[in-house]
Amino acid sequence: MERTISSMEIFKGVLLHVLKDEVELENGVRSTREFVLHPGAVAVVPITEDGKVVLVEQYRYPIKQKLLEIPAGKFDKPGEDPLECAKRELEEETGYSAREYIYLGYIHTTPGFSNEVIHLYLARGLKKGQMSPDEDEILKVHLEDFREVLKKCISGEITDAKTLAGIFRAYFYLNRSEE
To answer: Which GO BP terms sit in this record (predicted)?
Structure first.
């Protein structure tokens, strides 16, 4: 364990809240920890009746490229229910709603510098509706065969961490009876 000696706010923006803490390590050495506080998020693996995954393609400014990802989004308010956030984000980003949501656990995305937690869901029994992305989101919806998406995750064509985790957890959930 590391004991916090002092904490100072470095930056507070719309999405990010950065702190700089002075800590004492368990060996008695003092060190500095800079980290991002994140409100939390969800990511959804939506699978159609015929085995297609609903993905979104979007430009990610920090890495200056488009990525193929599962739909996802951050909590709008502290304490928001992850399932309600998952339902909202799936519909906003893809236009789909789901009859069934299965919780696949959560991941720590970058614990070296952020406390972000993303809750993962598998969504089935999809019904197509109308997309309503945020005004700063330009999204293109893709429907791809689950096995092809899995291959893209394994080959490195898909590099987004939440997508990798979601697809692999969905794969193992869907194939658990074969073990």
So the answer is: nucleoside phosphate metabolic process; ribose phosphate metabolic process
